[in-house]
Amino acid sequence: MLGAEDFINDTIEDTKSKITGKAIIACSGGVDSMVAAALVHRAIGDRLLAVYVDNGLMRKGETEEVEQMFKSMGFNYVIEDASEEFFSALKGVTDPEQKRKIIGEKFIRVFERRAKEYGAEFLIQGTIAPDWIESGDGVRDTIKSHHNVGGLPKEMGMSLYEPLRDLYKDEVRDLARMLNVAASERQPFPGPALAVRCLDEVTPENIEIVREACYIVEDEIRNAAVSGKMELPWQYFAVLLPSKSVGVQGDRRAYGRTIAIRAVASIDGMTATYAKIPLDVLDAMSQRITNTMKQSVNRVVYDITNKPPATIEWE
Ligand code: XMP
Fold first, then answer.
1. 96 CB less than 6 Å from ligand 1?
2. Considering only Cβ atoms within 10 Å of each terminal Cβ, which end of the chain, N or C, has fewer?
3. pLDDT band at residue 121, thresholds of 50, 70 and 90?
């Protein structure tokens, strides 16, 4: 890539010349979509509408945080609550690729409604290089169909603009710092959100368990990093496993859920090594997860595999 400053200036110029009407971007609050929005916003101001679709699968407090970021960036934005629509479309589904497909399609429908209402002619996307490389864009076999890559522009009759298409994550983070995007240090979060961290049917109850567990893992790891016990990993989260196992609660047999802790070091998500979390931090997470969710979770395990052979997410 060019130097970050040159890239920003060139992109703003390019945007001004190409985006001649109203534009819309789906902004999850992740660093990619926020940087794409910030660049385009600098070029065309309020002609860009940022849409946050609340699919009911986001992390604890995330919607409020994202709204705060939109406000501080001065974006013209809308928050679309579509959680019920997503849960009903996902009823009974456990296959990971089917989940991605349903979430991707539902997302397009919700977004399309909003784009039509707004009269958008241009669709801005925060796609970065690993998104299309790993989605089997002729370069590799499809490993996972990352949902932010798809045939949506043709169907929606808008022209597609992807300012970050050739960049890798670390380059996008550099841009974020220069553009004062608060998301610069946020860890990546997959488009299908907590649905691919719930190796089971995507119900509000299951999502609530994995949401709380993710929150605890994030909180404990962030605290451990602040106190110098470990480096902040590239990604760190919890996964809800589909099987139940036997445990004890008081003096009674309990049959409960298992949470896996996943934390990885990576540069761009293409390969990763598992993060070596200090034992006392693991211990704190395990106790906090099982105490907070006594009724549902009775076992916590730690994922010690690299990518490859595993992937970062479990689905
Ligand atoms: P994997 O699990 O493939 O993840 O090793 C590599 C990076 O991609 C993220 N990821 C996704 N991002 N839609 C996305 O936008 C998806 O369907 C998806 N699946 C995985 C993952 O969190 C990691 O950062």
1. no
2. N
3. very high
